[in-house]
Amino acid sequence: MAYRFLAEVIVIIHLAFVVFVLLGGFLVLKSKRAAWLHLPAVLWAAAVEFTGWVCPLTPLENWLRQQAGGAAYHSGFVAHYLLPCLYPTFLTRHLQILLGCLVLALNLVIYGWVTKKAA
Description:
By secondary structure, the chain is mainly alpha-helical. Helices cover 72% and strands 0% of the residues. The chain is built from five helices and no strands. It has helices spanning 2-23, 35-51, 57-67, 77-86, 93-118. The radius of gyration is 16 Å and the shape is globular. The N and C termini lie far apart (52 Å).
């Protein structure tokens, strides 16, 4: 039971990280120091998408699920949890690169807006 709970905690942390990557630039409005956490997170997320790496949270979640007697999934977090909500097809390499570009573009817009607002 504890393993299953921990796997669910990892899912929540993973989702929070994705939201932070996408929208964390707005925290810079409150504190400029937030950029020191947010920019590396954006670069990491973009690198994962562009290279096809697997985020370390995914194998950890799968291991916890297996320890709880459940089945692991063989795709990444985005493909397993987010894409079924957004898209009816499986994650392709092309779509993964597009998501990486979306992460960078969205954050460029947010940081541009934050910079303009601060001026």
